[in-house]
Structure prediction request, 832 residues.
Amino acid sequence: MIFDRYGVTYKNIMEKYDHIKIEKKWQKKWASSKLYKSKEDATKPKSYILDMFPYPSGEGLHVGHPKGYIATDIISRYLRMKGRSVLHPMGFDAFGLPAENYALKTKTNPTDSVAMNIKRFKKQLELIGLDYDWSREINTTDPKYYKWTQWIFLQLFKRGLAYESYEPINWCPSCKTGLANEDVENSRCERCGTPVEKKPMRQWVLRITDYAERLLNDLDAKDADGDKILDWPTSTTELQKNWIGRSEGVLIKFKIEITKIKNEPKQIEVFTTRPDTLFGVTYMVLAPDHKLVTELLKTVENKKEVEEYIARTKNASEIERTDTKREKTGVELKGVKAINPANNEVIPVWIADYVLSDYGTGAVMAVPAHDLRDWEFARKYNLPIKEVISGGIIDDLAYIGAGSLINSGLFNGMNSNQAMKKITESVGGKWTATHKIRDWVFSRQRYWGEPIPLIHCENCARLNPSGNGIVPVPEEDLPVILPKVKLYEPTGTGESPLAAISKWVNVKCPVCKSMAKRETNTMPQWAGSCWYYLRYMDPKNREALVTPDNEKYWAPVDVYIGGAEHATRHLIYARFWHKFLYDIGVVSTIEPFKKLQHVGLIMGEDGKKMSKRFGNIVNPDDIIKIYGADTLRIYEMFMGPFDQQIAWNTSSIIGSRRFIEKVWRLKKIAANNIAVENKKILTLVHRTIKKVSEDISDMKFNTAISSMMILVNELEKENVISKKVYETLLKLVAPFAPHITDELWIIFGHRGSIHISEWPKYDPNLIILDEITITVQINGKVRTSFNSVRDTDEEKIKNIALGLPEIKKWTNGKGIKKIITVKNKLVNIVTA
Ligand code: ANZ
Ligand code: ZN
Prediction:
C-alpha cells in the first residue's frame, strides 16, 4: 500500500519514534556494511580526525568522556559527506600506572583487567554510534604494537639520545618509582598526590633538551605559503613555551683561589641574564649539589659545617628550593675565594640551595642590589650590597629593572642594553640560551610498561669499557615481550619487579654470547602515546612502523581533540618523538598535529568534577536507554561552547529530545510535488546550510544546533514542505544525530546510507536576500558604507570597516581609540 503523495509507505510515515529499535538497527548495519572503513584513496583529498585515546579505566565511561569523541564524530561525518577520505580511528592507551594501580587494587593481573576494561569501553562507545573504523584499533600493550615503541627507543639509543644516568631524580615513595619532572605537580606525584623525594638512582633518560629549540620555534613555524603550521589554542602554545622555558644569557668564568692550595688554578662558570650587573657582584653561590663542591670540600676550612648543610638540603625538591617565600639558607665555603673578572675584586663563595644544580651551570654570580633572591640572602648573612644600576634601591628591596650604569668603571653612564653587550665582550663571556625543560627521565621501576630493549653484559663491558656493557637487543628480536607474572607489586628497592624473574632476566648477550642480564626498568606510561597516531595509518604492518605511502597520504593529523591537561606532557613528548622520527626519515612532516582543540569538562550536576568519590557520576548507558544516543549527542554538543567547562543537567536533555522528535514528525508534511517553494523557507534553509557548515569547521557545535532548531521551528509552521527541503534538513542533522537520520533517509526511499550522501551546497544568491547596508563613520561623520550579510559577527564587521580604502585614508597614521558598533547598522571609528 503505497501512499503516492510521499512516495513512501504510509505505515512508515505514521510510525512512532522508537530510539532503541532504530539505534540498535543502524549500529548493526553500519558495522556489517563496513560503512566507515578508511581507505587510502588517491582520488580524494584526505582528512585525519583524531581523539586523544583513552586509557581504559576500570570505572568505565561517564557522560563527560564522550564529549570529545562526539565532536570528532561530527567533524568526520561532515567531511566524509563533503567527499573526503576520512581517517577517524580509536584505540587504547593501556600501559602505565593507572592501569597497574587498578590491577593491584582489584587483585587481577593487568593483562586481564586491561582486556576486560577495553571490552566494556568499546561496548559503551558503540552505543553512542561513533563512526570509528575499528579495523584500525590499536592497543599500546599489544606486543605487535609495542614492538615499534621499543624500536623507536633503540633508534634513540643508537643516536645517543637515550642515556643512563645516576643523578638524583624525583621518587614517589607511594608509587615506588622514579618520575619525570612532568609527572610532578607542586612537589607531589601527579598520580597519587604523595610528596616526591629526591633520590639518586640508575635510570634511562631521553635527551629532549637537544630538541628544546625546535620544540619552541616550531610552535610558530610557517609553511611555504607563509601560513602558520599549527592552529593551536594560544593558551596551549604559551604553556609549552613556559615549560620549555628558554632563557637567553651569558656564560662568564670566574677564577677561584684556594687559600690552602697554591698553583692550582680553577674556574667556575656562571650563567647570568644580567651581565650589565657584573660590577655589582659581591659573592658567588654554588648549588650544594654542584659537581665542584665535592672537590672543594677537601680544602675548605669549615668542612663539617658544609657537609652538614649539604646533607640537610639533599632531599628538598626543586619546587621547595625555588619557592620565593621560603627562607634562604646557605654556608660560606671558608678558604675559597672567587675573582670578579670585571674588576678583579676578591669575593666569597657560598653554597645555598636556592641555586639549582641542573639549571644554567649550577652557579650564580650574586648581585644583591638587583636580584631579589640575592638581596634576601645578602641581608640575612650581612654580605655587601653594591648598587650598579641607577634606578634606586627602593627602601628595602632590590631594583631589578634596567637603567643607567654606575659604579662600573669604564661602563658608567651606559644603559643596561648596551652594557650587557660591552661588558660581556670585555670579560670574554659567551652568549647562550638555557632551557628550563629537563631531559626526560624515561625509566620506571614498575611492572606494567614496555620493557626497555637493552641488555647489560659484563663481558662486553670488560672488552669495551666505553660502552658500559650496554648492548641493544637486535631489531629482529623485537618485541621484548613483557612476561606474564603472578607477582608484580612494586618493590621499592629501585628495581622493577621484573628483576626477580630470573628466567626472563638472564639472557645470552647478542654480541659475545656470554650470559648477560636484561634491563629490568620499563618505559613510562607516556611512551606508547608518543607515536600512536602514526600506527593508525598502517596498523597491521609487520615490516615497518608505517609505510611511507600511507604516512604521506594521511599525515599530518588535521584535527586533534582532547583534554587540556595534556598541554605539556603528552603534547611535548609526542612532538619530540615526531621530530626525531622526522630526522631519521620515518615521517614527512615536522609537526604531528595541525589543529588542536581542547574539550571543556562536563562537571557533575552539583558543579563538582564527576567522580565516584562525589557520587555524581552520570552513566551514558542510562541516558541512552531513556533518551537515545542521538539525543545524548545533541545535548552534549548543545550544552555550551565546546571548549568551556559546563555542568550536566539531566532535566534539560528533554529539549534536545524534543528537537529530534520534531525532525521525526516533520516527515508527515514533507511532500514530493510542491509547485513553488516558499521563498522565505528556502532562504532560511540556505542560510542554515552555510551556518552549519561553517560552525562545524569552527567547532561551534552549539550554534550549529541552534540554527537547525530555528529552521525546524519554522518548518513546523508550514502545512507542507518539499521533500527536497526535508532531505536537506536530514543531511544537516546527520552528523549530529546519525541514527534517526539514516532511518528517515531510508523511509524516504533511498538505498545507501545518508552518511555517504553528498553534503548540501548553499546558493549564495538566495542568501544575499538578507543583505544589509552598514554605514561607516569616523568620529561621528559618515564616510562610507558597505553591504554585509545580516547578523555578521561584530569583530568581522569592524575588520571589514577598518580595511576599506576610504577609511584607511582617514585613519592612516592615527591611533584608534575605540570602535562603536550598532548591530546591522553602523560602525563608528573614534581616532586618537
Ligand atoms: C646575575 C643577576 C643579576 C641575575 C641580576 C639576575 C638579576 P632565568 O631568567 O630564570 O633564566 N641563576 C642562574 N643559574 C641559576 C641556578 N642554577 N639556580 C638559581 N638561579 C640561577 O634566571 C637567570 C638568572 O637566575 C641568572 O641571572 C642568575 O642570576 C640566576 F640583577 O645573574 B642572574
Ligand atoms: Zn656481551
Observations:
- Residues 679-697 form the longest helix (19 residues).
- Residues 247, 249, 271-274, 277, 355-356, 359-360, 362, 364-365, 367, 370-371 surround ANZ (ligand 1) (CB under 6 Å).
